[in-house]
Amino acid sequence: MRAMVTMGHGGLEQMVLHTDWPRPEPAPGEVLIKVAACGLNNTDVNTRSGWYSKTVTDATTGDAFEKVGEDDPTWGGNPITFPRIQGADICGEIVAVGAGVDSAHIGQRVITDGWLRDPNDPENMDKTGYYGSERDGGFAEYATTLAVNALPVKSNLSDAELATFSCSYSTAEGMLTRANVTDRDTVLVPGASGGVGGALVQLAKRRGARVIAMASEVKHPDVAKLGPDRILPRAPENLRAALGEEKVTVVADVVGGPYWPNLIDILERGGRYTCSGAIAGPMVEFDLRTFYLRDLTFTGSTVIDPQVMRNIVKYIETDQIKPALAATYPLEDLRDAQAAFIAKQHTGNIVVIP
């Protein structure tokens, strides 16, 4: 089969197209999916570059870093085995099943849950892996995964549109769940033009919250389509003044970087900050006095509850959320797709078509 294979940590050159890569076979408890489309996410970029290692303190660049720790270059703080086919957000059709899996699943249209859990201990975060990291993923014509991770979906959306949901929307829903967002909240979303940011806008609105999006002004028309109550520039010099009378109770952030203290300073007393990324940089200036004197709560969000992706499928099938598809690229142009993703050339999600 054709597959884009990541050969090691480093720059875009580490992704190599193979036209005769062995097609995987489903093991017991697994299914084989013919990939119709596969979404691209920060996890793919950061895993390839080794950005997750604590030896790296720069913003996400997608380039090779001068030094990447050998012991902690992945989301879970562990080494990764190369060569590796990345890509967690598959939409496709089940074409074969392994032992113990009902053959009635063959022919089902599915999207994938990227979190690979121990079947005997599914809620144990220490026993999780991620698709395209701890096992091969979807930047190929075929891929295998655990049968429980292939979720049937009934929708009139295209394959490319369905491939935008798995990582971005489950990440966003996990963040909002950790922060216990309700219809009593006003949620500030930095980076609202990105995949997770756009999902945060929609899913917070679904919960009844008031949503204030932040994005580059050139992207405001696209962000407006997602339904936020207000849109602010990406980084106002005086955020408090830009907010006016707004009382922000939750900041849902995947950006981080030098602007981070401004986000914390505008949170109301008793407010919550939830985070699942740091694309502008992981190192921030943190005043503990703001944290404890204002009774703030901080939550990190990575490994999500198994129910989250099942909820996302329900929201898709009942038209409660919509895709934010920015662009599609053929598999052989995955390097160009990642370059565009890193440069934030598009608003929304980028999808690769094998």
Low-pLDDT ranges: none
**CATH domain class of the largest domain:** Alpha Beta
Structural category is alpha/beta
Mean pLDDT: 96
Q: What gap, in angstroms, lies between the N and C termini?
A: 10 Å
The count of helical stretches stands at 10
Radius of gyration: 20 Å
Using the alpha-carbon principal axes, give the shape.
Answer: globular
| Order of SSEs | EEEHEEEEEEHHEHEHEHEHEHEHEHE
In CATH, the topology of the largest domain is named Quinone Oxidoreductase, Chain A, domain 1
Protein name: Alcohol dehydrogenase
Pfam family, one: ADH_N
Keywords: NADP, Oxidoreductase
GO molecular function, one term: oxidoreductase activity, acting on NAD(P)H
Short description:
One of its GO terms (molecular function) is NADPH binding. By secondary structure, the chain is of the alpha/beta class.
Give structural attributes:
354 residues, Quinone Oxidoreductase, Chain A, domain 1, six-stranded parallel sheet, alpha/beta, Rossmann fold, seven-stranded mixed sheet, single chain, 24% strand, 10 helices, NADP
Characterization of this structure:
The protein has 354 residues and is of the alpha/beta class. It folds into two domains: 3-164 and 323-353, Medium-chain alcohol dehydrogenases, catalytic domain (Quinone Oxidoreductase, Chain A, domain 1, Alpha-Beta Complex), CATH 3.90.180; 172-300, NAD(P)-binding Rossmann-like Domain (Rossmann fold, 3-Layer(aba) Sandwich). The protein is built from ten helices and 17 strands. It has helices at residues 42-49, 159-162, 166-178, 195-206, 220-224, 239-243, 260-265, 288-293, 307-317, 334-342, and strands at 3-6, 15-18, 30-40, 89-97, 109-112, 115-116, 129-130, 142-146, 150-152, 186-189, 210-214, 230-232, 248-253, 267-275, 297-300, 325-330, 349-353. The strands form four sheets. Strands 3, 4, 5, 8, 9, 16 and 17 form a seven-stranded mixed beta sheet that branches. Strands 12-11-10-13-14-15 form a six-stranded parallel beta sheet. β10, α4 (195-206) and β11 (210-214) form a beta-alpha-beta unit. It is globular. The chain starts with a strand and ends with a strand. The mean pLDDT is 96.
